[in-house]
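Bumping my old thread because nobody answered last time. Still need a sequence for this structure:
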């Protein structure tokens, strides 16, 4: 059975929960008239009684919802759940309440991926999701319901060639006013058979490993909220960027300015500006050669204080 891209979008939207316009299909079975080898429908009120031997009974059924047949019942006792995806924590990002964040899901290993379905749990009282992006964002959909974030993605032409250390998905959000000192926001993969990566044929991939970061309260007051630095600004274009980014910066007073690029762990990647300037608006370019896909932060320091920050998404 073939499936077109329009149907695939509907299925993906139905999975994440953003499309509830029709009732979820139930499995329907037909009573075994005609070829009823056990006279089930006629004499035994649709019940098959097995008395110690092996019994075979054919019947017709309409089953919907499991495209690749990965969710099948096992004979005998219920087998323990084994997740095909592992999500590891690789550190934390430190911010304050009311601030934005970008959390990447990074591949550990190389995978050819045709479809993705993931369910992530997070504390909705501490964070609000504002967006979800994929390195191929054309067919990605997501939906938030309470503490659950559902993400679905598929490729209708060719599989995504996901390389080791490549950012697959970026979750954008904002911490709430309830996010206090000592709080940590974790994105945890739900133990559910619906969480899986599939290849271009729809077959599930085994032992997929991703890594991500938690969001931790920084325990400090954000200097950007001070009136004395409101006129110091950074503007990035384009964002997301691939090969080159232009940094336009506005300085509210004369002084020594440093603008540097940091990775998500807070490690300095590059210095863009390091000089004394007069009050005004300037710009500078940075080539992204050798910088991998991911989320980075520009920090502008004036007079020894951080006066502006701006996040950059590198998507190659």
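Sorry it took so long. Here it is:
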């Amino acid at each position: 059975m073939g499936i077109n891209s329009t149907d695939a979008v509907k299925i993906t939207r139905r999975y994440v929960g953003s499309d509830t316009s029709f009732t979820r299909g139930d499995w329907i079975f037909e009573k075994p008239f005609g070829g009823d080898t056990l006279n089930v429908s006629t004499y035994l009120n649709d019940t098959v009684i097995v008395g110690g031997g092996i019994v075979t009974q054919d019947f017709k059924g309409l089953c919907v919802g499991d495209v690749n047949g990965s969710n099948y019942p096992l004979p005998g006792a219920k087998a323990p759940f084994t997740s095909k995806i592992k999500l590891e924590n690789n550190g934390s990002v430190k911010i304050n309440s009311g601030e934005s964040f970008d959390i990447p899901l990074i591949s550990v290993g190389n995978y050819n991926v045709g479809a993705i379905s993931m369910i992530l749990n997070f504390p909705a009282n501490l964070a609000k999701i504002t967006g979800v992006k994929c390195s191929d964002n054309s067919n990605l959909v997501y939906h938030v319901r309470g503490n659950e974030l559902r993400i679905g993605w598929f490729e209708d032409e060719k599989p995504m060639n996901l390389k080791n250390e490549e950012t697959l998905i970026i979750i954008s959000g904002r911490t709430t006013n309830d996010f206090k000192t000592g709080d940590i926001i974790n994105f945890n993969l739900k133990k559910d058979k619906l969480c899986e990566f599939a290849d271009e044929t729809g077959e599930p991939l085994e032992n997929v490993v991703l890594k991500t970061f938690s969001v931790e309260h920084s325990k400090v007051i954000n200097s950007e909220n001070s009136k004395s630095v409101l006129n110091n600004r950074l503007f990035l274009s384009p964002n997301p960027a691939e090969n080159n980014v232009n940094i336009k910066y506005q300085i509210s007073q004369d002084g020594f300015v440093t603008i540097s690029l940091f990775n998500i762990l807070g490690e300095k990647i590059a210095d863009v500006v390091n000089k004394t300037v007069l009050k005004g608006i300037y710009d500078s370019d940075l080539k992204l050669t050798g910088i991998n896909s991911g989320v980075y932060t520009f920090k502008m320091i004036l007079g020894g204080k951080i006066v502006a920050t701006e996040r950059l998404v590198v998507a190659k």
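Residues 85-217 form a domain with the Immunoglobulin-like fold (CATH 2.60.40.680). Let me know if any region looks off to you.
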